[in-house]
Each structure stands twice: as structure tokens, then as C-alpha cells.
Design brief:
Order of helices and strands: EHEHEHE
Radius of gyration: 18 Å
Number of helices: 3
Helix content: 25-40%
Structural class: alpha/beta
Largest sheet: 4 strands, parallel
Distance between the termini: 41 Å
Shape: globular
Strand content: 15-25%
Oligomer: single chain
Low-confidence stretches: 1-6, 103-138
Length: about 140
């Protein structure tokens, strides 16, 4: 599938997706932190972390994810957590932080800064109901 939008200036990499397939806790955070540092050095427009195979995260792991989120937010980039299990979703909701999706995100324009001469942002097609030709809309 081709991308709907070109990679925005300031975001050399449009999206990076990684999967965490084991519990994410303090013992593994140094290794995971190095991986995130390398990913963030690519200046992605979005980082998607697939948590569908992860059964547990501890407070230190939530702290790491929040740090990654803050670092991306400073550049107007996004962090998305994909398919966290109900327990992890509950922990995130308790922390009042819900950057997750239940299915792969659709291609959309990233939040990287557009060039100064760029026009208005692209908008998705309208989802308004269509009127029947027999009943014109006033």
C-alpha cells in the first residue's frame, strides 16, 4: 500500500512500529530504553508500540513510555500504544493517559511541523449522511 501523504519536513521517518512481546518491567528497561533512544534518533513522525503480546507493565515501564511520549510531543510527533490488554488499559486509564488504539491506525497526516509555505492541513472525507434526491435538504 502506498502512503497517502509524503513524509513531512522535519520528520525523516514517517512511522516506526515496534512490538513488545514480553512483560515490560524494571529489569528490561535499560535495554528497552536503548531501543527507544535509537528510534527517537530517527526523528519519526509517529512511534507505534504494539502491546498485544505484553501481559504486564510496571510503574517504571509506564514512566519510560511517558518519557518517550514527552520527547515525541516536544517535536509535535505522536506515540500510539496498539492493542494493550485490558489490565494495561486499566493502568493507563488510572494514570489518565490513553494514547492507545485497538486496531492499526489509518494512514493520516502526522503532526510534524509543515513548511511555512504549506497550505491548510488535509482533512479526511466528510462522514455526513447523504440526502436523497427525492427529499432535498433545505
Amino acid at each position: 500500500m502506498t502512503e497517502a501523504y509524503p513524509t513531512p519536513p522535519g520528520c525523516p521517518v514517517r512511522r516506526v512500529e515496534i512490538s513488545i512481546t514480553d512483560d515490560l518491567h524494571l529489569a528490561f528497561l535499560p535495554e528497552v530504553g536503548v531501543v527507544f533512544d535509537r528510534i527517537l534518533s530517527l526523528l519519526p513522525g509517529e512511534v507505534v508500540v504494539d502491546l498485544s503480546g505484553c501481559r504486564h507493565v510496571d510503574a517504571a515501564a509506564i514512566g519510560l513510555l511517558l518519557d518517550v511520549h514527552r520527547r515525541l510531543s516536544r517535536r509535535q510527533a505522536a506515540l500510539t500504544l496498539r492493542d494493550p490488554n485490558p489490565r494495561i488499559r486499566s493502568i493507563l486509564q488510572t494514570a489518565r493517559w490513553t494514547p492507545y488504539s485497538r486496531s492499526p491506525p489509518a494512514l493520516r497526516q502526522r503532526r510534524c511541523r509543515p513548511p511555512a509555505a504549506a497550505g491548510p492541513p488535509l482533512r479526511p472525507p466528510s462522514t455526513a449522511a447523504r440526502a436523497s434526491s427525492r427529499h432535498p435538504v433545505p
